Amino acid sequence: MVPIEKTWKQFYALDPQPIGRGGQAEVMRARDRLTGAYCALKRVLSSSPNGLARMRREVQAQRLLAHPNIMPVLRHSASYSWYSMPLARIALSSMIPPIDDPLVVRVLDATLAALEVAHERGFIHRDITPTNILDIGKDTEQWVLADWGLVRPPSGTTVTRTQTGTFGTEAFAAPETWIDAHVADHRADIYSLGRVVAWCVTGSPLIPNVPLVPQGRWKDLVENATAFRPGERCQTLNDFRLLLSNVIAIPADEETELFGPIDSAMAAPLDLMESVLKEMNRLDIDLPWPISGPFASYFSLRIVTGYVAAGRMDSAVRAILRYSGLGQERAEKLVETLHRVLEVVRK
Fold first, then answer.
1. In sequence order, what are the residues at sequence separation of 6 or more whose Cβ sits closer than 8 angstroms to the Cβ of residue 26?
2. Over its length of 347 residues, how does the chain's per-residue pLDDT go in tens digits?
3. Are 200 and 130 in contact (CB under 8 A)?
4. Chain mean position to CA 119
5. Which of 144, 149, 153, 152 is nearest to 71 (CA)?
6. Got the DSSP string for 198-216?
7. Contact yes or no for 237/119 (Cβ under 8 A)
8. Of all residues in the chain, what percent are helix, strand and coil, respectively (each to 5)?
């Protein structure tokens, strides 16, 4: 891709308010003047050498690594003062924890895939947080790891610390980055990803350098990934994946264990499900189920239908988002469809 010499104004019209802002850059929703499609545009807040250098590293790393689970670059300026990227549907940080296990597993699988590509080529992200894990999918989920501005490339190029004594995002940063982030290796990313898991599954606030280890199935993974000393952590992303495989090693016929006692208790009775599916077939309504993914099944559809039958529409939408790759809009439409069908079936 040839660097763009023109300003962003020649390509995009921006919304008046940013959708995100950090210490050195802000992100705007942008409409492509040629196609009318929306994307996100990130621009530096000042033309300071450090801000431009950070944006340059971010753009170069994301273009070089080029992976479905790494935020792509659509356009960028020759000076690296701005670049455009797909507009995210949601950031992991926008979700309210504790987040259900199926979604956490999908997010981890995507983030690990991104880091595997990066680590194999000698890149260390150094700022893995829920804010930087985004879903940019359209009809299905596509989780990507974004904001590579603090990346340490293979050359070992250093960057300026974001605050005195800290580097990256405090609550998720590995302890060794507080001493010297420039020599921290790939195990700093493992620590940060473990902290993301702790936040996802507990919903508790993270305190920098203070362990937060959940009880239950996630305990071993978080405990191993977030050990204080790098040498005591799981040493590779493959080690992390092995720990994750232990988390999800659940017999497929144990629905209550797989979906949790609360959702399982909401599953619609089989006779009601039979009537619902017959009515949908009679009305020639296309039902996007079962949906691809390790947790998709007829039982998950029963859970969603049970929530709708109980009038808990918001819970039904959240269940669809947990157990499928459908986005918010399609999930809401599916709930509306099930509601109409149930009204007919109950008459």
1. 18, 20, 42, 43, 45
2. 545 456 888 899 999 999 988 878 999 999 999 999 999 999 998 877 888 999 999 999 999 999 999 999 999 999 999 999 999 999 999 999 999 888 898 999 999 999 999 999 999 999 999 999 999 998 788 999 999 999 999 865 544 444 444 455 899 999 998 877 777 899 999 999 999 999 999 989 999 999 999 988 899 999 999 999 999 999 999 999 989 888 876 443 445 555 666 676 777 887 788 888 888 878 777 666 544 444 445 677 788 888 888 888 888 888 888 777 677 888 888 899 889 889 888 87
3. yes
4. 19
5. 144
6. HHHHH-PPP-TT-----SS
7. yes
8. 45, 10, 40
- The rounded distance, in Å, linking the Cα atoms of 179 and 188 is 12
Report pTM. 0.70
Q: Is the dihedral of CA 175, 177, 180, 183 positive or negative?
A: positive
Residue 144: helix, strand or coil by DSSP? strand
- Beta strand pairing call for 82-85 and 90-91: unpaired
**Which residues carry out catalysis?**
127
The residue whose two tokens read 């929306």 is: 38
Residues with Cβ within 8 Å of 17's Cβ and at least 6 positions away in sequence, in order, are none
Structure tokens at 220: 């071993």
Q: Do 45 and 66 meet the contact criterion of CB atoms below 8 Å apart?
A: no
CA dist., res. 316 & res. 319, Å (int): 5
Cross-strand bridge partners of residue 76: 83
Amino acid at residue number 311: G
Q: Is 91 helix (H, G, I), strand (E, B) or coil?
A: strand
Contact 59, 83 (CB under 8 A): yes
Residue 295's contacts (CB-CB under 8 Å, 6 or more residues apart) are: 102, 105, 258, 259, 322, 323
Q: Is 283 helix (H, G, I), strand (E, B) or coil?
A: coil
**Residue with the two structure tokens 């603090």:** 150
